[in-house]
Design brief:
single chain, mainly alpha
Amino acid sequence: MLPHREGHRGDRIGWLRAAVLGANDGLISTSSLVVGVAAAEPNRAAVLLAAVAGLTAGALSMAAGEYVSVSSQADTEHADLARERGELAAAPDAERAELAGIYRTRGLSPELAAEVAAQLMAHDALGAHARDELGIQDLTRARPIQAGLASAASFVAGAAPPTLLAALLPTGMLSGGVVAVTLILLLVLGGVAGRLGGAAWLRGALRVAFWGAVAMGGTAAVGRLFGAAV
């Protein structure tokens, strides 16, 4: 008989957060940059330079920020595991009693809790304490390099459409075309992210598109204001 395997949304949390954040940021920030620069200086070379610079700087910034952030989480996990490993070596009986106490609070009888703690510690003492005492599980472990690469790649994927539009659209259609395409992509991205996370797709789509429209409107206003002043 084949083992039963269930697909849960929790196993997506590590990459989903970084991917959605990166794509969102890449699409909104680069589109806003294109629209803002186009409002100030409707020159293709200037707009395209701003888009490419924004894509490059944003991808590197996202990768570095995510790597540093997740590395801090990983450092905390390693320190907690090292401390737990030392406690298990110094006082295994006390650690067994502590684990049994956790299981009693979850509803097991004292006898069963003691038996479960003894068997789990005999199998993998550190793993049992990491999971049930510290809340550290393999699916949610910090992976800095994976998170950094996912953020950078997703930022580039999000920033690519407005950058390509800046290179291909006629100057007169640039702002309107970028805004329209960006809003459509934000609706799709928000809907997909909502579905993957288990939420209603419409709510996810609308909230992402709304804040994207606010960002583009704000940068367009700034670009027009300062462009006119110059």
